[in-house]
Design brief:
Elements lengths: L1 H21 L10 H28 L6 H37 L1 H72 L2 H16 L1
Length: about 200
C-alpha cells in the first residue's frame, strides 16, 4: 500500500506542475488541462484517502469495516442459522412425538385403568384369602377354647359330683352299713390286694 501511494504521489506532482504552467485558456477549444488535472487530483485523493478513512468511519458507526470482519460475521450468521435450523428440526420432532402421544393418550389411559382394575382385583382376592385364613384360624382357636372349657367344666362337675357323693356317702354310710357289709368290704379288699 505504501508503494502504491508513493507511485501515485510521483505521478501526481508532475501533473500538478503541468497544470499550473498551462494555465486556463477560456477562449481556446480543446482539453481543459487544468480542470482535468484538478479533477484527477481530487479523484486520487478520494481513491487514496477514502480506503483509509472508510474503515475508521464504519467502525465508529458500529459497522464492520474489513472483509475479514464481514466474513466472520457471515460465518457467525451461518452458524446461527444452522443452529436455528437444527433447533427447529428438533422442536418439530418433539412436537410430532407429543402429538403422537396425545393421539394415543386415550388408549394409554384406558390401558392404565384396566391395569389398575386388574391389580385392585388381584389385591382384593389376596386380602379376601388372607381374611378367610384368619377367620378359619380364629374359628379353630375358638373351637379348641370351647372344647377345653367343656372339658374343664365336665371335670369340675365330676369333682363336684364326686365330692357331693362322698359327702352323702359319709353321711349315709354309717347309718346303712351293717357289720356284715363291713366284713364283706374288708374281704373284697384283701382279695384284690392278693391278686
Amino acid at each position: 500500500m505504501k508503494r502504491s501511494f508513493a507511485a501515485f504521489v510521483l505521478l501526481l506532482v508532475p501533473a500538478v506542475v503541468l497544470a499550473a504552467s498551462g494555465g486556463d485558456h477560456h477562449g481556446e477549444h480543446g482539453i481543459p488541462w487544468g480542470t482535468l488535472i484538478f479533477s484527477t487530483i481530487n479523484l486520487a485523493i478520494f481513491l487514496v484517502v477514502l480506503p483509509r478513512l472508510l474503515p475508521l468511519f464504519l467502525k465508529t458507526m458500529g459497522l464492520p469495516a474489513s472483509r475479514d470482519d464481514l466474513q466472520n460475521r457471515r460465518a457467525g450468521i451461518q452458524t446461527a442459522l444452522q443452529q436455528a435450523a437444527k433447533a427447529k428440526q428438533e422442536s418439530e420432532q418433539l412436537k410430532q412425538e407429543w402429538e403422537r402421544r396425545l393421539a394415543n393418550l386415550g388408549t394409554e389411559i384406558e390401558t392404565l385403568r384396566k391395569q389398575a382394575r386388574d391389580e385392585i382385583a388381584a389385591e382384593r382376592e389376596q386380602i379376601l384369602a388372607a381374611a378367610q385364613r384368619l377367620a378359619d384360624t380364629i374359628r379353630k382357636d375358638a373351637q379348641k377354647a370351647a372344647e377345653q372349657e367343656v372339658r374343664n367344666a365336665e371335670e369340675k362337675l365330676r369333682e363336684e359330683v364326686a365330692s357331693q357323693a362322698l359327702a352323702v356317702a359319709r353321711r349315709l354310710a354309717p347309718q346303712r352299713l351293717t357289720a356284715a357289709d363291713q366284713e364283706r368290704f374288708v374281704g373284697d379288699f384283701i382279695q384284690q390286694v392278693r391278686s
